Amino acid sequence: MIEVNNILLQGENEKVEFKTSFSKSVIETLVAFANTKGGVVYVGVKDNADVIGVDTEKESLQKWANEIKLKTVPSIIPDMDVISLNDKKIVTIRIQEYPVKPISVQGKFYKRISSSNHLMDATEISDLYLKSMQYSWDSYPYHGASFDDLNEEKIRQFIAKVNESGRFVLPNNEKEALVKLRLLRDDVPTNAAMILFSKEDLLYNVHIGRFKTPSTIIADNMISGNLYDVVEKSMQYIISHIKFAFEITGQTTQRTEIPEYPLEAIRELLLNAVIHRDYQSSTDIQIKIFDRSIQFFNPSGLYGDITVEDLKTDFYTASTRNKLIAEAFYLTKDIEKYGSGFVRVRKQIASYPTMKFDYRNDGYGFFAEFSYTKQKTLNDVTKDVTNVTNDVANVTKDVTNVTKDVTNVTNDVANVTKDVTNVAKDVTNVAKDFTSVPQGVVANAIDDVTNNRMLKILALIKENSQISTAEISKKLNVTKRTIIRDIEILKQQNILVRIGATRSGSWKILKND
Questions:
Q1: pLDDT of 409-420, one tens digit each?
Q2: DSSP H stretches of helix in 247-290
Q3: pTM of the predicted protein model
């Protein structure tokens, strides 16, 4: 009796509902409980927990049980008890979470959210059924498709990557490999196989935009295709539209690049979106890049029982909407063990002092955002690329510690830019007014390096139109990310264009600026 009083004091919640009398709404609540985590309906109690009592004749209770059974599919049979409280009688109707879901009442399906019953839509009904049967949508055959609809070259690349990862061994024969992974059944590709390897663009888009304000778009791109290419193209586009800070120490001939956001964390959120997306939805994944934030929107929302609060811990257990797609990315080592992505993201942004990681789940989908107040740098000399220092005294308390000899600075900058003559002129000017060294020399050197490097890229492409970004990176002794970003700028200036596929295509120089 004490336990019942405590429940009444706590009020309605995910597993408790109060009703003044038995009605259809009682059955709807029982169905919602059965489709969620179970619960108890207290009949004879007002919403405010006042006990008013109810008629508990044996015939009445039997009638209630029959009505519940007849109006639910599959039929549910709850446990009923009569309790005396304050000289009044109330009825408890208890139902456990049902093993085979979803349950309906007169053709309608409900689930419990907080203290309310929520009418499920078609997607939620489908997801609940597949989860209950331990199926996933991506394991079903793709209607009207055959093995001939798959890109065999993409499958061979996938097989090689899996075997190289060491997590699994696949046969070299394309069909045998897909059958082994349950991606092909009776020569019919599954939904997962088509999404991963289809020859035809299935138009599951990732829409990426660079924004100045929420209503001012600077650039945008719609990326689609097979899933592995979508991930790589999306990462390249994002990298080309985020800022980088630089460190020039004089200890190396290369500058150190510090990305605006940890690239591995961005990749983790991108993979999370494409792997856990509801591919039955026509809404695109959306990525918005602002001056000091980047936002990811997955229209599918969280799957299964996991909550936003669960994601804030290091020990959450994730459910997988697309089991075969997730397994494919796991086997190629694009993702680690399931249910660890957000743990890794938190570790990756820990080295970014002012960066915040916010996320939420609502009726429209799942939203995640990185934002910051001050861009990360590796030392005080380059705390901001566009404004190296507002106060030279704050950058270096002792100018002689920045450089004991202007000649040494000249030599260092010359080594970085590989253009001794041009940079020597800049350094000579800086020597006349030493306080401008961080802002003048570094900023001008970076501009010279970039322009000079783009000319060298165009020269290499002129010699070999099929040269890869990796080969250009090696020849120019800079990172591949730098080459990708420079090429993107050349494309935007209509100087350079890519013709054909990523691996078999070629470059074409439109004009020499």
A1: 345 444 434 443
A2: 263-275
A3: 0.57
